[in-house]
Every structure is written in C-alpha cells, then in structure tokens.
Design a protein that fits this description.
The protein is mainly β and about 140 residues long. It is built from one helix and ten strands. It is globular. Its main location: secreted.
C-alpha cells in the first residue's frame, strides 16, 4: 500500500512538472535590528503548498552589509503559485536556541509567467526587534 502511495505521489509530481506552468516571483527589502543593518540574515522564497506536498524552495539568500536583500525564483505548477518570504533571524533573541522565523505572503499581483520575475515585491524596511504575527522558532531551515 505504501508503495502505491509513493508511486502515485511521484506520478502526480512528474505530471505537474511536465504540464505545469512556469511561474516566478521576487522580493526585496531591508532588514534592521534596533536601528542597525541586520547583516547576514537568511531569507528564503517559497511556493507555499498546502496538503501533502511540501513547500517548494524557489530561492534563498542573505542580507548584505547594509541589511538589503533581493531574491527571485520560479516553480512549475498547474495552479497559481503562492509565494511567501521566510525570514530567519536572531535580533533581540539572547541565547535562545534556534532562530526566530516569520513569513510575509507575497500578493498574487507579483506573480509572473516564465522563469524571470518581471515585478519585484518591495517588502520595505523591516525592524526585526519587534514580534510578528505567526512568528515561530526554526532550527532546521
């Protein structure tokens, strides 16, 4: 039974890749911690998949010396992608294990057809010192 489920999942994944539409998204912003650039903060752009399918990593990067970042990526999906940005940081975190994580959902109007994001979502300047709705801790990103 497990083998049938695995084969079915693989078949659906392959079919999606073969007949899906290539879609892209991108996001830029600036991260600060207590008024200073948040240097080296990891950011990841995902296609948020719900259900049995895991989220698809579209791109990842880190903030530069000024706290700035810009990433974009693409994914093949039959239905519209649901891009989201995950930010992993230690601002005002002391010695707690793992990193703080929060998510910003990218509006559908920033989804482009093809492999190149034609419209980049500007997340603006984000002060990491505060707390964010849905914030969690992540050790395995």
């Amino acid at each position: 039974m497990k083998l049938i489920i695995i084969l079915l999942f693989c078949l659906v994944t392959l079919a999606t890749a073969l007949i899906g539409n290539t879609q892209s998204a991108g996001v830029r912003g600036k991260l600060i911690c207590n008024g200073q650039p948040a240097v080296g903060v990891q950011v990841k752009l995902f296609d948020d998949d719900r259900g049995l399918d895991a989220d698809d990593l579209m791109a990842s990067g880190r903030t530069n010396m000024n706290g700035d970042f810009e990433i974009s990526g693409h994914e093949d999906e039959i239905t519209p992608i649901d891009p989201k940005l995950n930010i992993y940081h230690d601002c005002n975190d002391g010695i707690k294990p793992c990193q703080r994580k929060f998510t910003i959902k990218i509006p559908d109007s920033y989804i482009s057809k093809g492999k190149v994001a034609r419209k980049i979502y500007d997340a603006g300047v984000i002060q990491l010192a505060g707390s964010f709705p849905g914030e969690s801790r992540d050790c395995l990103h």
